[in-house]
Give the backbone structure.
Amino acid sequence: MTYKVIDNFLSEADFRLIYDTMMGYGFPWYYHHSVVWKEPEQDNNKNFFFGHPFSIDGKESGYLHILKPLLFKLQVNKVLRIKGNLYPNIGELYQDEMHQDFEFEHLGALYYVNTNNGFTVLHDGTKIESVANRVLIFDSSLPHSSTRCTDQKVRVNINLNYYAPTRN
């Protein structure tokens, strides 16, 4: 599998629940000093972001329930990690360094919560635009990177790392 992009992935009601929750007041976001792990003194003050741990290391957020339609439609068998990403507008389309989510083969899905001029760059240079209710399915053990946006206050997506049933 190289990658697959599907627009209008969820129903309008399921999309609105995710959008309204993650873009609304009171949703907990946590500061991370770097998208690609580095020592704080090595940061360039551009690659910070805010994250939400929906499911990490077996611990689940109280907000995981809003993702049930997404997990169902992706046919998730086993969750490795699910996190929300909020990239603030820093006034430029800054691109993070290429990285792998995990070094072993697995499926990755990026679900785009809001439309903006940011994008995801895959290992072969392909750019996937951030369009609300779009999903990108790919092998996230391959290098990829994210960008900021300049036309909205924030760029928000959900990063899922998982296994799904194999198809014959």
About this structure: The first strand starts at residue 3 and ends at 6. DSSP finds two helices and eleven strands in the chain. The helical segments are 12-22, 68-74. Residues 3-23+47-162 form a domain with the Jelly Rolls fold (CATH 2.60.120.620).
